[in-house]
């Protein structure tokens, strides 16, 4: 089916990238992308994400009705649609990665342990447990995501939003890195988190230096 073929291929490629990074295990996890006409491209339920192809990505409308594709969408569809209804995000990724899942078993939030965490909204909250695929889970995660770009899910995994698929993937990779740092530090002793003044100083330094943007020696921007 030709509808949204490029977007479906991109979602499948993102799923394969996350599986290769070890963040998606077998059929556990899902990826979605907001597309035109109020529709969403989302991975199908029950597929092996490491082998995802364009045909394994389903197009649904804002009410969850399938408009293109041969496979039923992920059981977490309500979560994805809820994000798009309440956030300006263009993409959503949900993983069952080891570090994020482990921390979601023991903490209520991951404090700000590194300044690179700040673009995600600071401390990473842990949404209370609810059975997968339920409206309750979707509500819990949406509450946790208020003013945030990422959250953990108790006894479940993690979710991250992005301005596009690459951004969402990078954000969930960042979440896993932060969780690994926190777990490692906590095993060594009390964790020293950044206080609000330190967080503000880091944000101001990033803004002043246009942190994360490549620059030529003469100061001219580099086209990506």
UniProtKB/TrEMBL annotation:
The keyword Glycoprotein does not apply. The keyword Transferase does not apply. Keywords: Lyase, Metal-binding. SUPFAM superfamilies: AraD/HMP-PK domain-like. Residues 9-183 form the Class II aldolase/adducin N-terminal domain. Residues 205-224 are annotated as: Disordered. Residues 206-224 have a biased composition (Basic and acidic residues). InterPro entries: Aldolase_class_II_sugar_metab, Aldolase_II/adducin_N, Aldolase_II/adducin_N_sf. This is Class II aldolase/adducin family protein. It comes from Nocardia albiluteola.
């Amino acid at each position: 089916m030709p509808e949204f073929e490029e977007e479906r291929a991109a979602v499948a490629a993102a799923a394969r990238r996350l599986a290769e990074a070890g963040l998606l295990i077998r059929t556990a996890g899902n990826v979605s992308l907001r597309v035109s006409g109020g529709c969403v491209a989302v991975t199908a339920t029950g597929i092996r994400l490491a082998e995802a192809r364009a045909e394994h990505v389903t197009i649904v409308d804002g009410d969850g009705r399938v408009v293109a594709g041969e496979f039923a969408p992920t059981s977490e569809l309500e979560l994805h649609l809820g994000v798009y209804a309440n956030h300006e995000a263009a993409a959503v990724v949900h993983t069952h990665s080891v570090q994020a899942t482990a921390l979601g078993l023991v903490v209520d939030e991951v404090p700000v342990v590194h300044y690179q965490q700040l673009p995600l909204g600071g401390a990473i909250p842990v949404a209370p447990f609810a059975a997968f695929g339920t409206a309750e889970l979707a509500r819990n995660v949406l509450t946790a995501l208020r003013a945030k770009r990422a959250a953990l899910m108790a006894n479940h995994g993690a979710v991250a939003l992005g301005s596009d698929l690459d951004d969402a993937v990078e954000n969930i990779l960042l979440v896993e890195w932060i969780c690994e740092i926190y777990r490692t530090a906590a095993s060594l002793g009390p964790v020293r988190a950044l206080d609000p003044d330190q967080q503000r100083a880091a944000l101001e330094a990033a803004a002043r230096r246009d942190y994360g943007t490549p620059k030529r020696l003469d100061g001219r921007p580099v086209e990506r």
